[in-house]
Amino acid sequence: MAVRKIKADVYYVGAIDWHRRLFDSLIPTPDGTTYNAYLIKGKAKTALIDTVDPSKEAELLRNLDDAGVGSLDYIVSNHAEQDHSGLVGKMATLHPEAKIVTNAKCKEFLMDLLLVPGDRFMVVADGDTLELGGKTLKFMLAPWVHWPETMFTYLVEDKILFPCDFLGAHLAPAELLVESVDTFYEAAKRYYAEIMMPFRTSVTKHLERLSGIEIAMVAPSHGPIHTKPASIMKAYGEWASDRVKNEVVIPYVSMHGSTQRMVDHLTDRLIERQIAVKPFDMVATDLGKLAMALVDAATIVIAAPTVLVGPHPLAVYAAYLANALRPKTRFAGVIGSYGWGTKMVDTIKAQLPNLKVELLTPVVIKGYPKADDLKSLDTLADEILEKHRKAGIVTSLA
Q1: CB-side exposure of 152: number of CA atoms within 13 Å?
Q2: Structure confidence by residue, pLDDT tens digits, 194-249
Q3: Are 305 and 256 a contacting pair, CB within 8 Å?
Q4: Model pTM score
Q5: How far, in Å, CA of 124 to CA of 101, rounded?
Q6: Crossing angle (nearest 10°) for helices 258-272 and 371-390
Q7: d(CA 306, CA 366)
Q8: How many CA atoms does the CB half-sphere of 195 hold within 13 Å?
């Protein structure tokens, strides 16, 4: 992406990655991503806020050259993860006069991850400021959105917040500046689900803190820049709240059709009870879409066949993923089938220690589901409806 002027003496100098489809060898990025870096030219000093992924070194150097940067005085590192910090060491080498500005924890990480010498750092604390000459940077420590060393940088005069990963999106955008999250809602929610949902308590805390600051623009390190920040902040507030929807997510695996029949039957019975259902075949599903579904759902039901007396490994993975993401889900259930014996329920339950859920009555059957087995699934659908009603998630049927 070419250099973009976003305010007087404030420039976007990052890089766009149109073709990246997997992040951290784990997270699907179907719409690509960006590595956003920003240049601020004060009357006396110049600062670079974050760098880019090492694969985009040429783009960053070209952009800085196009922006007329002869030298840098400061390299601000908001977060040590390499898609943002990967070229901090390179930039420090190219600009030996520059100091790397970050907090004590991030300094420690950068020294460990990138082998940056300790004498290159300027360590800042929460609330510290840095004068560039008509441009003042204020630093806000923001641990656990999403690493322990994360911080935000706030450009006081222009009221621009640079929050690194917070409020971002994995998206290669057609437009860099956007007014509303509605124009890329799915990408923003996917990013929240995959990256921020495990830390929703911290998300809420930092949203409350930011509500006391006048912010005209949010310039994150992935995705578009928000010119009307209220939109993305409202969305984050909803996603991170304790409110859940009358929805059931069913991650499932089926080897020979028995579990598939159970999932299909339960899905139909829940729909009849006017409960939204989102089934995900773990063999083929996009894990980002599963994560998004978990953001709001009141209930998760994991469905699996038995493999050597335990649940199918993909069902264990679904449980592990849900446990790691820590959604606000209220209820959890297990359904599935076995041939000669199973420890499925105990194994899946053991994978969910982080979820503050009430466990539903399991339905685990022998062989292919018979009439009485299907009636047990009807009873489970009734139980889910009643739990949702008692929790105030659904109060009546239309």
Answers
A1: 28
A2: 999 999 999 999 999 999 999 999 999 999 999 999 999 999 999 999 999 999 99
A3: yes
A4: 0.94
A5: 7
A6: 40
A7: 10
A8: 24
